[in-house]
Amino acid sequence: MVLPLITYPYLIRVLGTESFGLLMFATAVITYFQIFTEYSFNMTGTKEISVHSNDSQKVHSIFNEVMHTKMLLLLISLGLLTLVVVAVPVFKQHSLIYFITFGNVVGLSIFPAWFFQGMQKMKAVSLINIGSKIFFTAGIFVFVKGPQDVWLAALLTACGYIFAGIICFLYAIQCFKLPLKMQPLHRIKQQLLLGKYLFLSELKISLFTNTNTLLLGFIAGNTAVTYFASAEKLARAIGNVFTPLTAALFPFFAKEITIDKHKAYAAIVRITAIGSILFLVGAIPVFIFSDAIIRLIYGPGMDNSVLIFRILLFIPLASFIDNMFGKQVLLTLGKDNLYFRVILTAALSNVLLNLILTPMYSYIGTAIALLITQLIIDAGMYHYARKQLKKNSAYA
Fold it and tell me: What is the pTM of this model?
């Protein structure tokens, strides 16, 4: 949560807005492959492991099926990236940056976070992950000294992901005595079918987070990407205070909802209300002093990010609300189709808003489009969750 707040200010200063924008643009491109290889296993895999955590044979089977599926998707992703880099001149010009940044995808594919979340055993892997990221982040401050080192910044970041992934994968096998067995194609196909709606939803989500950066880069250039990405990363870093909470709640509610729906629904509503109030209390002073915060973190040359930051500051709260009503309610009830419907509507709206607002207002238009899109998601998730709560719980 804290590391981007440390590395980005330094990288902006030493790389400059153009090279830093290139790094952020490459990261946005590679994120598509990350979404593809993750394939919603952070939800479907976590849920399956949580439900069957007391059945060791079933756990072994799920682990092998998911990991083999992820490796297949990783190979496909590498092939697609190679094709894009070779065929598209704008990517071929900086091909080394894209292939190095793809290391992030390799590390995340190996890292079985979904498995440990499902088993609700996150302490050790969290420490390994944190240690790896801190070690290689320190390398950025030691070795990255100018715009010519943009490739090295990408490499050190990728190494943090890869090292953590390898260590945690080996730890999972050793700690839980997981046998590695080749899986037939029909098992892999079952995993793909199981998570298809959630994967499509995750893909659509990238259209109003990741695609915003891509469209801005194509329309306004890498410098505009720097102003937008810096403000967005800062806003999302603040919003990361919710990430451990929502990640821990999903396997918990996946099990609790099968035991006592009324109690689970009441807890979801209560947590949403408390979390929203606490966030607003902290966000208001941050909004007021946004200009000072941006200058302190990124330097005086980044004043163009202040308004973007103020626009995006309340997106983490909106994301938390849509997570509670969408992921914790609709997905735990198995209403993947309704979840997907909301995301699809929002994604199409986002692309349209970006095509209208970004050419007119550059990075400001991109920020406004993102905020409107997130509000559309909140309205949709709340609408469908409320309908499901009325059907399934007297509490609603």
Answer: 0.71
